[in-house]
Each structure stands twice: as C-alpha cells, then as structure tokens.
Specification:
This protein is an alpha/beta fold. The protein has 7 helices and 5 strands; from the N terminus they run αααββααβαβαβ.
C-alpha cells in the first residue's frame, strides 16, 4: 500500500490531469493489464516512455530524476556531487554570520528551482523546516515535483509553477 501511494504521487506529479486517474488505476492494479483494458495499456506505455527519458541518479542527500538529455548534470551528479551544494553552503554561512548566535535555518525560497537540486540539498543538509521551490518551465516543474517526492520532501517544500520578474506583466 505505501509503495502504491508513492507511485500514485509520482504519477500525479508528472502526468497531465486527464491521465492521473488512469495512471493511478494502472499502478494500483500492480500493472497487471487485461486485454479488455486498452486505456490502461495506453497509460502504461506513457509511463514507460516517460521513464525511458529519465534516469534516477543517487547522491548523498537524495536520488534525483534527471533527463537523459541533460548529460552535464547527469555526469556531475553521477560522481556523487550534489549540484548547487557550494552555493547553498555559502548562502547559509553568510546568513548565519549576520544572524543571532541561536540562528537556525527555517525557511527558504528557491527561485528558478529547475529540478530541485538546491531545494533538496538545503532541506536535507541544512535542516530547513520548509521551503518554496518556484519553477516556470513545465517539464522542469514536473520533474521538480517528482524529485521532492523521491526525497520525501513534498510536504516540507512547496513546488510553485510560475515565473518571477522584476517587471510587471506577462511575457
């Protein structure tokens, strides 16, 4: 049951709203398809296609879903190096020097979160209690949500699909 719930959350994070119910049905039935269930077979094929486009790469903090097209990030993280670690460590050090002696990380906002490497590292390595990861790109946002679920942080870090700018209006 826990495994089914986990897979349902991943399906919800990546698939379009119209496919979510079918994906949940596929996963809940342990991917046992009957010949009279063509719509479930179609959803399974969609999931297989999605999974074949990504690799799960483990790092010391968490495992990340990374596009097979992103050779640079995949190679970097396959070496066990968490992308964004230096930037997050430097920011936490600078903030701690400015704060009171009892300062501890509470909240962060990751603008341009991409697939969540900075957000997940900040939460896992520095113990931030909550965070907000903002990403405008649709595919990156879906992968961000999947990575937060994989890391067990989807309840602590909110993924927000929008863009931010210093200017008002739409582009």
């Amino acid at each position: 049951p826990d495994n089914v719930h986990f897979h349902n959350k991943l399906a919800e994070a990546f698939l379009d709203v119209g496919d979510q119910l079918r994906a949940s049905q596929v996963i809940s039935s342990s991917l046992e398809l009957k010949p009279d269930q063509p719509e479930l077979r179609e959803t399974l094929e969609t999931l297989k296609k999605f999974l074949s486009s990504y690799s799960v790469v483990p790092t010391p903090e968490a495992s990340f879903l990374i596009s097979n097209r992103d050779q640079v990030l995949r190679r970097y993280m396959s070496q066990g190096i968490t992308f964004g670690k230096e930037e997050v460590d430097r920011a936490v050090l600078m903030i701690s020097k400015l704060g009171a002696s009892d300062w501890r990380p509470r909240s962060f906002v990751d603008i341009g979160a991409n697939i969540g490497t900075h957000s997940i590292y900040a939460s896992k390595a520095h113990g931030f209690e909550r965070g907000m990861a903002i990403e405008v790109d649709e595919e990156n946002f879906r992968v961000l949500r999947c990575n937060l679920i994989l890391a067990g942080l989807d309840q602590r870090v909110s993924a927000v699909h929008c863009g931010l700018s210093a200017a008002s209006g739409h582009s």
